[in-house]
């Protein structure tokens, strides 16, 4: 079986896009974005960079769907659970503020 080769141009384009996304990450701090806007931008840019790295440099883009689901499903489940814990923590915090004065 012959190994698949990908054009060098693809890797250069992805590298350039990663450089641009990293520049945007730096600019978030440079322009002093604060609070939820800052963290939302940082997390979105981080996930975009991680997705590019996993898809192209780890060759996940060219794998079968079953392997992609095996690799991506556990982190997605953890993100959902972390979101649920975050919502629960806000509820607990507000409840404590109301009743423990």
From TrEMBL:
- Domain of life of the source: Bacteria
Its localization reads: Cell membrane
Q: Which UniProt keywords apply?
A: Cell membrane, Membrane, Transmembrane, Transmembrane helix
The record ties this protein, via Pfam families, to: COX4_pro
List the membrane topology term(s). Multi-pass membrane protein
Q: Which GO cellular component terms, listed alphabetically, does the Swiss-Prot or TrEMBL entry include? A: plasma membrane
Which residue ranges does UniProt annotate as crossing the membrane? 12-33, 39-60, 67-87
Q: Which InterPro entries match?
A: Cyt_c_oxidase_su4_prok
Protein known as = Cytochrome C oxidase subunit IV
